[in-house]
Amino acid sequence: xxxxxxxxxxxxxxxxxxxxxxxQSYWLLKTWDIKDKEFDQSVNIVLRKVAQRLAAYNTTVxxxxxxxxxxxxxxxxxxxxxxxxxxILEEYLFQEINNQSLNIDFEYxxxxxxxxxxxxxxxxxxxxxxxxxxxxxxxxxxxxxxxxFVIRFPKRENFLLANLNITIIFTMFSVLAILFFLYSxxxxxxxxxxxxxxxxxxxxxxxxxxxPIASIKIASDVLANDIKTxxxxxxxxxxxxxxxxxxxxxxxxxxxxxxxxxEKDSIELKKEWIDLNETLQNIIKAEDVKxxxxxxxxxxxxxxxxxxxxxxxxxxxxxxxxxxxxxYCKNENIKIQVSTHFQENHLLISCxxxxxxxxxxxxxxxxxxxxxxxxxxxxxxxxxGLGLFYVKxxxxxxxxxxSVDSELGKGTTFTIDIPEFKFKx
Length: 425
What we know:
Elements: H1 3-58, E1 68-72, E2 75-79, H2 86-99, E3 106-112, E4 117-125, E5 130-134, E6 148-152, H3 156-162, H4 165-225, H5 227-231, H6 233-263, E7 271-275, H7 276-287, E8 294-299, E9 306-310, H8 311-327, E10 334-343, E11 346-353, H9 360-364, H10 387-398, E12 401-407, E13 411-418, E14 421-422
């Protein structure tokens, strides 16, 4: 993956993370605020009904203003304007809180105007339905009130959090997704760094091979052209072996370098209009010498066709496909056919062989880098597994499509789909 794509991925990912965190935080705070307002409204309803029942019980009149005052988030005072019977008050509180489905523990106290103090505080729990004498942790007196009681909800935060379970769960999932994304970015960067180290090593190694390969070629040519070598069949054969193996090694190095250029997107296509029939005919003439026990046939169309391509890379693509067809044909009579035809205004180039075929599982990975089709326990097919990876990327660079149709034991057909062509220049 190019560096600029990774930078964009990290930038977009970072912006997404900030956006997700902002939205989650906003909705969490918004939901908390809504739940807090709902709680306050429910408590006000409870306390108003309790005050009304106390007023009815004492036959007094409630004040028209400041009936309920909120001192803090969980601390309320109720001005009943009359005497308060603690057991009655406690029973009314239990009943009205239960009617509102709050079911939250509370503690209360009653103001004694003679002692100027809050007295008789009970902690009331809905779990065991009993009261425990206690003393309010916070004492807030209201100077403008005479007959009033106070109530506090010590577990208000826990109660609100219990109502936010779904929101909190979604928030946790979002945080986990963000952590997973950050971990994935870290893995991608690590793998990219290792991949770049590997690629740089291979590139440097193959470039270093070019000098000794060139030197070996010069030396082998001099040795092969020497009169004494020509007169000695054994020396002449050895010189020919050196030249052939040196040429093969140079071809493999060139493949690796071409793949490196493809991965860096630095390969430049020098496109031109070429005569397809003539080019394919020349390729097959050169490749036919590799077929020692069979035929490689060229079946041209009736019309002269021109395609817009980089001739060097196009020749390499066809040569790679034909080379694989020869390598993977184990029959005594090899048959390879190259043909062209037209389908829905597209030009199709087909290379068909009667080789060992490719399984459906291998076809999925056929164009992957370094992948080689299995030929059993014997490893007599040489190569790095770069040929078809190169073919696919060159076709992609041209805007072409390549497909494979194969069946084990019955051969393989490679088809290149070319949308741009001409019959005349």
